[in-house]
Amino acid sequence: EGVEWKFNSLAPKVAGGHAAIGEIWKVFATESGAVFLAENRIFSWNGETFEIWEMPEGRHLRGFEVDGAIYVQHQPTGLYRLDARGPTLIETVSSLGHNAIALILSQGSDWILVTHDGIRRRSHGRESVLVACPATDYLSKHPITKAVALPNGQIVTGSVDDGLVVWSKDFQRIGAYSEREGVRAGYAVPQIVDRDGALWASSNAAIYRIALNSPSTFFDARAGVPAQPIYAITRFEDRLMIATSDGVMTLSPETRQFELTQSTPHAVRALRIVENSLFMARYRGLSRMFEGKTIRVLDLESDVMTLGLSRRAPRTVYGDHRRDVLAFSPGAEPK
Q: What SS3 state is found at 73?
């Protein structure tokens, strides 16, 4: 409050500007700046300049952080480790296959890869192999949407047709949430695990809080959840908020109904909390909510789709705009 936030376009730092950037799919905060993954390029920002690496012929670079390092899957060629020297191929597509990776977990000297064709194990840096297990059988039949790891080492996967499934450390099915449990099967997506250990998930027209060791909370149209995708879920000022195509909706503690926040009447794609503020990537710009007020801090010609927080400077937020990448922080002058 009372602090002016200045927004900096990083596009002028890229040769070719907006046209050379394309769509941004993932943002990682690093010690020196940030890494942006686009359709077929990796942009590494060190706070002053960009280092850019081409990954041709791909449509969507997938990124993962494992043991403090960033890894990128380029489906036409394989899996890469990213460092200051650039991407280094660590597993080729001939062994990994063209299947998209949804999650990478580190287990000692082994890695567990949750992929669209099943569970793969990578031991001591060798090429990964498919693990014969119930999880592999299931994933080969039910297209995966996303996978998240629980604090106890278990894995939750979502599918396009069969809800959510909980897997043990040895990939046995130990729980399921589908139509019978009140979770709509269509495009079920596990989103985040909150500080209390509960799983938040979404499906078409519904969001869920699943306390895996206690009764779960289910929200759907009866609680005012709209019949549209949920882009983000967060808790801000002790209230549950969701980002939808209509704007930000807040769960009323009195009525237990989601109500549209009138100050955000357009689509909101991402939510990020910075200190006492909630930043919203919205239709043609970005807004900031604090102490019950919402202000428009940046107006653009198209939507902001994603937001990421800087590790080095906790009050710096990175975002995207069309074929541009943005960095902004309170009181800072444009670079």
A: strand
Residue pLDDT, tens place only, 278-292: 888 887 777 888 877
Residue 263, burial from CB neighbour count under 10 angstroms (0-12, 13-18, 19+): middle
CA distance 263 to 289: 9
Which residues, at least 6 apart from 263, have a Cβ–Cβ distance to it below 8 Å? Answer: 287, 289, 293, 294
Instruction: With beta carbons less than 8 A apart as the criterion, state whether 195 and 201 touch.
Output: no
Given a contact cutoff of 8 angstroms between Cβ atoms, the answer to whether 29 and 312 are in contact is yes
Answer whether 139's CB lies under 8 Å from 151's CB. Answer: no
Rg (CA), the chain: 20
* Alpha carbon distance 154, 168 (integer Å): 5
Q: pLDDT per residue over 238-281, tens digit each?
A: 888 898 888 899 888 778 889 888 666 678 888 888 778 888 88
Report the alpha-carbon distance of residue 306 to residue 282 in Å, rounded: 9
Residue 144 half-sphere exposure, CB side, CA atoms within 13 Å? Answer: 27
What is the DSSP track for 162-231? S-EEEE-TT--EEEEESGGGT---TT-EEEEE-TTSPEEEEETTEEEEE-TTS--EEESGGGT--SS---
- Cβ atoms of residues 329 and 318 within 8 Å: no
pTM value surpassing 0.90 = no
DSSP 100: P
Q: 45 in helix, strand or coil?
A: strand
Among 99, 107, 122, smallest CA distance to 131 is for 122
Residues sharing a CB contact under 8 Å with residue 271, sequence separation 6 or more, in sequence order: 232, 233, 234, 236, 241, 243, 248, 278, 279, 280, 281, 307
Can you read off the two tokens belonging to residue 228?
Answer: 């549209």
C-alpha–C-alpha distance, residues 109 and 207, integer Å: 36
